[in-house]
Amino acid sequence: MQKNVALNICEETPGSTGRVQFLYDRCRWKHVAGGMYMRPEVKVGIARARLLTEAYKETRGESEMIRRAKGLDHILENYPIFINDDELIVGDAGENPDTLAIFPEMGFFPTIDIVEDPELMNDDIRDEARDIAEWWKPMGLQDKCMPYYDPHEIDISTPWTIVDVPPFVANYMSVCPAYMSVLEDGLLGRIKTCEENIAKAFVKLRAYPWNGPENMPLMDKIDVWRSMIVADKAVIKWARRYSRLAKIIAENFDLSDSVLGAEKRKNELLEISDICQRMPAEPAKGFKDAMQSKWFVYLVCHSLERYSSGYAHLEDRLMWPYYKASVIDSTAQPMTREDAIELIECERLKVGERGVAKGRAHREGQPGANDLHIITLGGLDEHGNDACNDLTDAILEASLSVRTPEPSLGFRYSPKINEKTRRLVFENIAQGFGFPSIKHEEKNTRQMIEHYKVPPDEAAHWALVLCMAPGVGKRRGLQKTRTEGGGLIWIDKCCELAFYDGFDYSFANIQTGPKTGDATKFKTFEELFAAFEKQVEFATALHYRHKDVTRRAEIKFIESPFVASLDDACMDDGVGAFVDKTYPNPWNNTPGEQAAADSLAAVKKLVFDDKKYTMEDVVNAMKADFKGYEEMRKDMLAAPKWGNDDPYVDEIGGRVFTMVADKLLEQTTYSGMHPLGNPQTVSTFATRAPRVGALPFGRSHGEVLHDGGSSPYVGLDKKGPTAVLKSVAHIPFDRYKGVQFNQRLPVSVMRGDKGFQIWTAYMKAWHDLNIDHVQFNVVDTKDMIEAQKEPEKWQSLIVRIAGYSARFVSLPKNAQDAIIARTEQPLS
What we know:
5-stranded mixed beta sheet
C-alpha cells in the first residue's frame, strides 16, 4: 500500500524549498471577507486609471480600437514596476505590492463606491480619483448601456435577487487568453502576422476594379490589426522594463539577505533579465520561459488591459512541451523535477498575491478568495487516451506542498486516468483543500462536440472558464468575456416570487417579477408550477438582455486589442476580442433549483395531496417567516427532500431542472447559440441568504440557501451517499454546462489505509451515473469549531465553499456554520 503523501507533507512548513517557505511567509494575500480585504495594508490606487485617462485625452478622434491600444501602451510604458525579493516569476498588476488598480471604464457605480470608501482608498488621492471616475462616467459601460432600460428594470436588476447585477454595472468579467499562440509564436510573431494581413488588405484596396462591398470592411480590419500591433509592442516594452530592472538589481544592489545567498541570487536575476528580454516577445524554449511568458500575458489580460476573473488554461498540456524540454530532455533551460515543482509553487504564491478592486457585490460574494483562479488538469486526448503526464503529477505535488487556496484546481476525471495521477488527486482532496474539483471527462467533451459544435481535436483540449464551465483552450475561438458565458439567474428567488404574484416582500419590497396570480387562490399544483415557470422565464430573458446589451457596448467602446491579438480567429478575421464568435460558449449559473424542488414538493404534499394546509396558510406562514406557524414549519421540514432517493421529490426536481434548461435553450445570444445552465452557488448560498425570504420547505428568512447546484440542503440528506447520488442522477446533465455537487467525506476514512480504494469506488458510481461534477470537503468538525473560537490559530485551514476553496476563518459565520452542518457521508 502506498502511503498518503498528503499526510507526510502536512506536517511540514508549506513549500518544498527554503525560498518557497520564505515567499509563503511574506506573501501579501489579497483575500476578502464581508466585501473588505483581510489585510488592512491593501489599498486601491489610481496609477492605471490616471494613465488610461491621460491617453484617452490625447487620442480624441481616433478609432476606439486604436484608443484602447494606445491606452494600454501608455499604461505599460509608465506603470510602476518592482521585483520582490527572491521571487522566480516577476510581474505585478499593482503599482506597489499592496495596491490594487481600478477600472473606471468598466462601470461607474463600483468605481465610485471604491473611491468613496475610506477603508479602501487613501485620502490624498481621493479627489483625483473622484474626478477620474466622473470623467469616465459618460464613456464607460454603465452609461453606454443604461439608455436601453427604464428605471424599474434597473431597480429589479441591481439588488442581486432574481438576476446577477448587470455586467455593465458589476465590473466583473472573465477571459480565457490564448496562451498557446504566445508560447508558440511569441508576440513578435503575432506582430509579423498583423503586418502581413495589413499588406494583403492594401493590395486589395489598391486593386482594379474597385469593389466597395468587399473592400470597405478591410478598413475596419486594418484598424484592428494596427491596434493589435500597438498592444503587442506595448507588452514587449513592458516586459523588457522588468528585464532592465532585474539587471539593475543584480549589478547594483546588496543581495546578502537573499535566502539563496548573494551570488546565487545575482545569477538568478541575470537569468530573469534574459528571460524577460525574450519573453513574451519570442517563442518559449524551456519551462522557465513558458511560465514567465504566461504570467506576463495573464497580468495584462486580467488586470491591466481591463479586469477579468479566472486563470483558464489546461496547464499540464499547455506547458508540457516546455516542461519536457527542460526536465525530461534537458534541451532548453535544463532543470531538475524538484526545480520545476519549486517554480510551480512560486506561481501559486504569485496568484495568492494578485488582488482586484472589483465591484462590492462580487467582493461580498467571494469571501476568502482573492478572485476566482482555476487551473484545469487531466482528461483524455482526442483519441480517448489518458492525456496526463509528469507535469500533471508535478502540479498536484506542488499544491500538496505549498498548500495555498488559490489557484484552485479542476480535474477532468475518467477511469482511464492512470492510478498514480488519480492517487495524487485523491491525496489533495484528503488533505482537505477542497480541490481538485472533479468534472466528468466524457460527458463534458461530448457536450463540447455535440452542443457547442467544437471540432474533436479542439474539444479534447477544454479548460474551465471559471469554476465549472468548460471552454476551448488552444489558439482559436476562446471565450473572451463574461457576457459570452457567465452570470446568475436565481431560481430560488423565482420560486419565492411565485407565491407573491411577483412581489418581493422579503428584501427589495418592489414588484420584481411579473404578476403570475394570487397564489392563495391556486387550486392545483400545476397552477403553482406555471407561476414559478413564468417567473423563471422573466428572469432568464432579463439576464440575457443584460449580457447582450453589455456585449454591444464592449464591442463599440471597451475592446481588448491585446486579448484579440492572441486569438487566431480574431487575427485571421481582423476583428476585436468581443466580436469573435468562432466557438460560441453561452452559459450561465442557475442556483437554487433544488430549493425549488424541495419547496414545491413540500407544498404539493401538504396542500394538494394531504390537504393539511391551504395555499393561503402557506403564503401567510412565509410572510410571517414561520412565526406562529412553527408546527407547519416542522411538517415542511419533514416533507420529502432532495438527496434521499425519494421519487416524490426527485421527480419534481427532475422537472424543475428540465424546465429551467428549456427556458435557457429558448434564448438566442449574440453568438447565435442557445445557452445552457450551470447551476452553482459559489459562496452566495451564505452571502445571498438575506435576499431570499422564507421558503416552504421549512427554511427561514436569512438561513443559508442550498449550496452547490445539486447538493441537498444542509443536514436534510439522511440516507447516505448512494441515495444522494441517485437523487442527483435525476438531473438531465447533457442539457447543462455543469452542475455543482458538494459532498463532505469523513477524515477518518479518507486518511485511512483504505481511503483511496473507498474513494475510487465512490468515483466509479459517480462516473457511471453520468453526474457532471463533484467536489469534496474533508475537514474535522472539531477543527472548524476550534477555528471559530480562535481564528488566529487556524489561518491555514482551507475548506471548499462551492466553486472555489478559501480560508475557513475568512468566511462569514453563516457560511462556516453551513459547512460544519453539511452531512458527512459514511463511506465504507
